[in-house]
Amino acid sequence: MFSNVLEAVGQDRSEQATQTAASGFDAIRRGVKGGIIGTFVMTAFRIPITRSLPPTANFWAKYVAAGPPEEYTVQGIVLHLLYGTASGIAFILCCAPGGTGSDVTDEQQGILRGIAFGLFLSVFGERIVLKRLLDMDLEANEQLIFHVSHIIYGLTLGTWVGSNT
After folding, report:
1. Which of 49, 58, 159, 161 is the most buried (most CB within 10 A)?
2. Full domain range(s) for residue 54
3. How far separated are the first and last CA of the chain, in Å rounded?
4. CA dihedral in degrees (125, 128, 131, 136; nearest 10)?
């Protein structure tokens, strides 16, 4: 009888571990999808206004290949999408709203946390990636669009994740 109890406890733990792994995988998948969606929305906002590629083309030109950034349009867009996807995963791991049981609360938390995350990415992108890695200084109007586009990314990501928690 005691062995049956131990066996049942072992099965419960095994089931819990399986459920935890599945929910972790689902969370990562939400981050991937949210990151992709956020990047598309951000890019759709940014490109018509700036009429230029994201700075990822500059990154590609400086660190991966030789030549002007204009030669790496596809690589720049793909790299930007990869950054956005990875950032979606990072958002899930550090900032995602935790299923409160209330759809409204999860969405509100997602929106607020997404905006904060977008601001963080924007400041990090400007100060570390652009200034230190790429030696780029944005003009005031470019800086504004850079920050607004990252807020749009965070808002989109947070809203999507919060509404799918």
Report:
1. 161
2. 26-163
3. 41
4. -40
* Number of domains observed in the structure of the chain: 1
Residue 42 has pLDDT above 80, yes or no: yes
Percent of the chain with pLDDT strictly greater than 70 = 84
DSSP 164: T
Distance CA 21, CA 123 (A): 33
Confidence of residue 30 (pLDDT cuts 50, 70, 90): very high
- Is residue 15 a part of any domain in this protein? no
Say how many CA atoms lie within 13 Å of 76 toward its Cβ.
19
* pLDDT number for residue 1: 57
Closest CA to 95 of 121, 123, 114, 108: 114
